Amino acid sequence: MRLTINDSAVETPAPAPGQCLRTLLRESGHLEVKKGCDAGDCGACSVLLDGEAVHSCIVPAGRAEGRSVTTAAGLAPGDELHPVQEALVESFGFQCGFCTPGMSVTASTLGPEDLGDLDRRMKGNLCRCTGYRPIREAICAGVGGGAGDGCGGCPTAALASAPAAPVEAEPEPVEAVDPAGAPMSGGVGDSVRPPRGREIVQGLEPFTFDTVVPGTLTLRVVGSPHAHARVVAIDTTAARAVPGVVVILTHEDVPRRRYSTARHQFRDDDPDDTRMLDDVVRHIGQRVVAVVAETAAAAAAACALVRIDYEVLPAVFEPEAARSPGAPVLHPELDESDRVHESGRNVVAALHGGYGGDVDAALAASAVTVGGTWQTSRVSHAQLETHGSIGWLDDDGRLVIRSSTQVPFLVRDELALLLDLPRERVRVFAARVGGGFGGKQEIFTEDLVALAVLRTSRPVAYEFSRNDEFVRSSFRHPMRVSVTLGAGTDGVLTAMKIDVLSDTGAYGNHAIGVMFHGCSESIGVYRSPVTRVDAEAVYTNNVPSGAFRGYGLGQVILGVESAMDLLAQELGIDPFDLRRLNAVRRGDPIHVTHPDHEEDIVWGSYGLDQCLDLAQAALRRGNGVEAPAGWAVGEGMALSMLSTMAPRGHFSDASATLRPDGVVVLDVGSAEFGNGTSTVHRQIATTVLGIGGDRLVLRRSDTDLVGHDTGAFASSGITVAGRALHAACTKLRTLVAGLARGVVGGGEGDDVFAGDVAADDVELGPGGAIVDGRTVPWADVLAAAAPEDLVTDGLRASVEERAYVRSLAFNVHAVRVAVDVETGSVRVLQSVQAADAGVVLNPAQCRGQVEGGAAQGLGSALLEEVMTDGAGTVTSSVFRFYRVPQFADVPTTEVYFARTSDELGPFGAKSMSESPYNPVAPAVGNAIARATGARVFTQPFSRDRVWRAAAEAGATGGATATAS
Amino acid sequence: MDVTTISSFRAARTRADLALAPGEVPIAGGTWLMSEPQPRTTGFVDLTTMGWPDLEVGPEGLRIGATCPIATLVEWAQGRQTRRTTSLATPPSDWAALALAPRAADALLASFKIWTTATVGGNVCRTYAAAAMISFAVALDGVAHCWAADGSERRLPVADLPTGDTTNALAPGEILRAVEIPAAALRSRATLRRIALAELGRSGSVVTGRVDADGAVVVGVTAATSRPVVLRYPGVPTAAELRADVEAAEGYYSDPMGPADWRRAVSATLALRVRHDLLQETA
């Protein structure tokens, strides 16, 4: 078929009759056309067809014959970018970057007349990372020629001129400066733009599947139609007869060993309750058979022909019923040695404890008690890049897996264990990852791919569809959280009683960690003399839950912060003041179920007081956005605390290698998936080494690069991996200084080896080390090095960071909302978040993390819910039924940073990637309650629930309630 | 997505070509057919090669070819000169109700990028309760002109076409040829209100209303009910009467786009807002 792609005449093989344009373009080498949903909902595959934007995934390929297609890589001639793309690069308009090519294509069709209607014009492009504010600004700048005058009708322009324009507080001055004493451009504290921006906006930066491995087979699975069943027989005769089928795998072909799809530093953190393919299925959609074939079409055809006989077993879907007598037991054969607490009651994890005495007595003796029970829903991570991996054998016969993962080293370790291979015979790496949010701290595809590669000795790829994400990946744990608070009339807490029931679904991946973590900083943030916590995580025959941004905290924080709001209302105390009265202060012990301080938590800094002040002041200032006439208005706030890494250890190796050409190669294990660490890591190196980004090469997320890395989760990219890199760069600089001094002085370098002063005295110039104004060529420096410090590339300094102690970060979110009580519609008029991130190493990026977390929080608060039919079938299994926030749904969040400097983190920095999400939902719920007089106890506070609660409370419009 | 079960893609050029072999389905824009696996379908028969005119204006009213892209209808209704509308006659100036077309399109979850591919007929024939082209046609007493497999033809109100969410009265092999909108309805004053669980999400309720030249009022409820509900009044009903009628209507249903009780309540609220619009416009 002939067509024109990016102004080049192209002749492709005839498309298959049911083929879409997206795959035809990718088969023609245009890997810049991404797949987010493959169903026309997300816009990641947007291209221009004869100049008009279309979703290429739903255009029949044959209809492009003789027509002209323009992709994100062809919006401007040669190496140039379209003005919108330039603006996206300039204004931090992407984080993971997976949606960005499609976003660029759609935006390129807009004109100044569209700027007042961006919500509608851009509703067909979803971004999960940014919260849209920087994209909106980029479009205004790119289309209108400047955010100021070019977009009069643009809501952002209106906001930007409002009194409370979003601003970051000035970051703390950073001590590290270059040897000349001037602030180092591109170093820490600077808003350095993420690397590879020009490639990302064009779609040219490769993600997991943006590579061609010749001869790759396709793996597809057959899912269970039953929520609980025993597999009696599998007949693959007809399936094997499909031309192109290479191998079909069943439970008889996989290792007996059980494992968990969840990955942690210590594999014993999760229950061994999963088999690669099992003869018992415990949720609808669970994979039963894997088909490996030459083409996706053959694999799909064969999957349809696999005959499976099941013996259907009784199933249970409600967590309370699941732990009650008589419930079907999901994992009867497991016990404590498998890390399942009480399998006979379907309880995988339990926490029962407290301190300070009898909580019921303390509550009874309290002047005031308030309480309630809150329920959260399943939330999909909705990373635009689905899960998937490609595996092959390298020239040495070693198993290689290229995966969309946050934890390549942990995947490598578990694959080696499962397949009985030495670790060094397995390599796992991640290219750029298209979003994570915790969902890629799991093994969902790599295990089957690895097995299939070993069985076939051929490359194998398994890429999730969007539907797969909804039926066989994981969701945020739904939790029922009951909170009762006791207090004196002065508002001082006298008792806290918490009961948590978490639904982990059919498997316990992250069940234990999420439950324990959920009941930690959420409760420990308050100084209560008497506290009691009862929590259990139970198996049900629902799709499994897993790690999700916030890791259980957000669910419990919803209960605690909503109950705190009830207390504030009951006593007529300002909710900010109530927190000031009861929240921990620097030096206070942090404890949850025992009287002793958590020994691995240190008070490296404290910024909650500033966060409360900043958020309250912003809310008082307002932003000039008015409520529609007749809508009820209310304000709400909530706080959250999060430790700066996971408990019990997070490990990172890093190295810095000086090449003879003066370039320093940085090797880290952690992955880049929009978290921005690859930017900050380069900034750290720039500041420590005193050299610009043009002389830095960062390599990451590959088990071949360094010895170990726990992975990019628990917000550890800066606080652990960053620390490791900081130490490696410091070590390299010290090493170079010693060597250069040795060369200059003609003596042994050892004399000055250890001194920091000596290290700062020596500059890493482009041609060599500069000592006392004299340049020692790099070849001479390297020649002087000890053999053990030399590797093929050059002079290498390595560090193994083993972090055990944690500090604490804080966030306060505040909103003013308007509610149409007749329909339940909620509009967030003002959204404010104050964050205690320590020293902010990259203000623009950190602002983006806070905005993105707030946007995801708003989605969870108001829109997002994975629905089931109550019998295990997910009914919202594609994006058109699952409400990922669109442009129209996300207001600008004003971001303020506390001025603190942490004693633990590199340059005083703390983590700030998960935590902005946590306080958003309770803040919104509290505002709705104050606006309408009706509190909604089930999250999301969707329009139907708000309407129902308001109707039951007899709420009327027009009332105004303030939080402060 | 690649629909891997499809082994033939056949262009239809004559009515005889529309005879469907086992496993074949007609395809227009294909925006739904290409968005999901189609396990029971083995062939597509392309309607867009039939050469049906997109929009025909006559004394009886507007005839919308089933393969007319939604974008064409919207652009033409807005009086915009685009590559799609340039060869079309401009709409009669007194067809005020054409203003409903872009508002109905906005009620779709699909963005403008889909409208250039998706067709009016495809949207009607997929027959989602939330199908906004059904909302548009129902608002204006649109008639479905259908070609049966045996060569016969029939016409039925678009409001009677849906039999439920995603099911309709078309017989096997029967093809929607056009949607016809009577001129009298096009000369009415019409309005549309909608709501979804997200601001621009898939509709949970769409309520339309119009006042004809003789003062008669027609209110349509779609998206909230599994089949369209049409309420007819000789004049503007009282608020209480309208609310009672909308609340008493049959077919409010629950799915991920909203539970039935909320859909019933917000449909009544939207109907009152529609009434308010109509009173303002007639004042």
Write the layout of secondary structure elements.
The complex is a heterodimer of chains A (964) and B (283).
Chain A: E1 2-5, E2 8-11, H1 21-27, E3 46-49, E4 52-55, E5 68-70, H2 83-90, H3 100-108, H4 118-121, H5 133-144, H6 155-160, H7 197-202, E6 217-223, E7 229-235, H8 237-240, E8 245-249, E9 280-281, E10 287-293, H9 296-305, E11 307-312, H10 319-322, E12 347-355, H11 359-364, E13 368-375, E14 388-393, E15 399-403, H12 408-418, E16 426-429, H13 446-456, E17 460-463, H14 466-472, E18 475-476, E19 479-487, E20 493-505, H15 511-518, H16 521-524, E21 531-539, E22 545-546, H17 553-571, H18 575-582, H19 608-621, E23 632-643, E24 650-658, E25 664-668, H20 677-689, E26 696-699, H21 717-745, H22 756-761, E27 763-764, E28 768-771, E29 774-777, H23 778-784, E30 795-803, E31 808-820, E32 825-836, H24 843-862, E33 893-897, H25 920-932, H26 943-953, E34 960-961
Parallel strand pairs in A: 1-5, 6-17, 15-16, 18-22, 20-21, 23-34, 25-26, 32-33
Antiparallel strand pairs in A: 1-2, 3-4, 3-5, 6-10, 7-9, 7-11, 8-10, 12-21, 13-19, 14-15, 14-17, 19-20, 23-31, 24-25, 24-30, 27-28, 28-29, 31-32
Helix pairs in contact in A: 2-3, 2-5, 17-25, 20-21, 21-23, 24-25
Chain B: E1 8-11, E2 24-27, E3 43-46, E4 55-58, E5 61-65, H1 70-77, H2 100-106, H3 112-115, H4 120-126, H5 132-139, E6 143-147, E7 153-157, E8 162-164, E9 167-168, E10 175-182, H6 183-186, E11 189-196, E12 203-211, E13 217-222, E14 229-233, H7 239-248, H8 260-282
Helix pairs in contact in B: 1-2, 2-5, 7-8
